[in-house]
Amino acid sequence: MSKTSIRPALITKVIPDSIAAEIGFEPGDTIASINGQQPRDLIDYQYICADEYLEIEVIDTKGKTHHIEIEKDYDEDLGLEFSTALFDGLIQCNNRCPFCFIDQQPPGKRDTLYLKDDDYRLSFLYGSYLTLTNLPQREWERIEQMRLSPLYISVHATEAELRSRLLKNSRAGKILEQIHWFQERRLQIHAQVVVCPGINDGVHLERTLLDLAKFHTGEIPAVASVAVVPVGLTRFRPTEDELIPVTTAKAEEVIDQVQEIQAKLRQTSGNNCIWLADEWFLIGRRELPPTSEYEDYPQIGNGVGSIRQFISQFETYVKDFLGQNICLSTPRKLTWVVGNAVEKAFVAIGQQLNQIEGLEVNMLDYPQIGNGVGSIRQFISQFETYVKDFLGQNICLSTPRKLTWVVGNAVEKAFVAIGQQLNQIEGLEVNMLALSSNYWGQDITVTGLLTGQDLLEGLQGQDLGEGILLPSVMLKQGDNLFLDDMTLEELAGQLQTNIWPVAGVEELILTAVGDR
């Protein structure tokens, strides 16, 4: 990137009681340079600001330039947030992967939904995946110099010809050479393999996983983990994409194949680096692996173990909470909306919520699809841990409540027990409703892909009780906007009910019992 392409960093928030607040920074101000350097991105900004002495060139909202000198402790944060992490623009993708979700969306939505990023900086900062096909030498040098590790890499196949075919990019075939580059410099990657039946499955999948496992050696393994994810398809995908959806039989085949490889790795090296996304078990109608299988959940952001973690957290939290003998003075009836793929998994959670006296939470089941490696298992594990303490408090709601908890149907089976435990709270009734997505044209849907239109279609005419417990993963981060651009307020108005976004186990339980 040239210096002329670097824009001043726009400040959107000043943290109260921070250095920046004390000096008088305001939202709308921009930072042009620090110590004579123009930061390209948040990485540069954080690196430069680690110094004890800063000279900052600031342009205020009226366009006036100020030069500010700051003395602070080494590595002390200034307390500023910016409109973007990239001050010189996004490095966009130059591949044409047939399974790209960006190309499987309907036209006419907000522009940001159609941006194809392949930016190593977003990978380092936020865990987004890139392919390494568009990096000039200077960016490789920066990764090495600044030790930007780990990065998250979409591998899909290690055979050069096959990977080039999948990404439709002649430069894609150098992946093993590139991973070796990371290994030589003691840098790490997390890899993902999106399995497309008939293309990179079978012997090709085995070859890919064994190739990647060879880099999982030493004190700092170049390949820290590998997530195996089923291809996700929507009704908007191009007709010429050559892709076919994953069936129950194919999911069972992949589960058996990968678990055999996992067992061999544990036998030969004593550890494992390969994990299956939760969705394989949902599509294949298999039980989720236990919490111990996921170790420290290295691929939780890719949906590996999130359901198991959620359930474990819930059970831990609710163990104490329900032991408080809570009883709602005013009964509450709520609706919990989920994707129907997880409905069975979440039944127990709904049952436990409904043990609270005065609370009724209904989980809505309406046919939808998703991706995830262990993310469901992680959620379940967190729930189980939380609920053990929570339920032990013998909580009884003074006012009974009936609520609806909405999830994607991909987690329906996994979350059944959570619903059951919630319903153990005296006075609380939580009904879990598991939905699929007509919007995307999917029969099985992960919760995060449910749109406002899906919820409207699935919930209209339902007895939602006092309101809806809505997983915040359905909404744009920091906003109340669904993937189809419907707002939370619009949905609540059309359904004429309350909607409470909840993030994680603790918020789910505390919102259900009216403690937030």
How do the strands and helices of this protein lay out in sequence?
Layout: E1 9-14, H1 19-23, E2 30-34, H2 42-48, E3 53-59, E4 65-71, E5 80-82, H3 120-126, E6 129-130, H4 137-146, E7 151-154, H5 160-167, H6 175-184, E8 189-195, H7 203-213, E9 223-230, H8 248-269, E10 274-276, H9 278-283, H10 306-321, E11 326-340, E12 343-345, H11 347-353, E13 354-355, E14 357-364, H12 377-391, E15 396-409, E16 412-414, H13 417-420, E17 423-424, E18 426-435, H14 452-459, E19 467-471, H15 488-495, E20 498-502, H16 504-512
Parallel strand pairs: 6-7, 7-8, 8-9, 9-10, 11-14, 11-15, 11-18, 12-16, 13-17, 14-15, 14-18, 15-18, 15-19, 19-20
Antiparallel strand pairs: 1-2, 1-5, 2-3, 3-4
Mean pLDDT: 85
User: Mind summarizing the main beta sheet?
Assistant: 6 strands, parallel
- Helix-strand category: alpha/beta
Low-confidence stretches: 366-373
Estimated radius of gyration? 24 Å
Number of helices: 16
Percentage of residues in strands:
15-25%
Distance between the termini: 47 Å
Beta strand count? 20
- For the record, the count of structural domains works out to 3
Q: What helical percentage do the residues reach?
A: 25-40%
Overall form: globular
Describe this structure in words.
The protein is an alpha/beta fold. It has 16 helices and 20 strands. The chain has 3 domains: 3-82, PDZ domain (Pdz3 Domain); 101-276, Aldolase class I (TIM Barrel, Alpha-Beta Barrel), CATH 3.20.20; 309-512, no CATH class. Strands 11, 14, 15, 18, 19 and 20 form a 6-stranded parallel sheet that branches. Strands 4-3-2-1-5 form a 5-stranded antiparallel sheet, with no helix packed on it. α10 runs parallel beside α12. The longest helix has 22 residues, at 248-269. It is globular and about 65 Å long. The model is unreliable at 366-373 (pLDDT under 50).
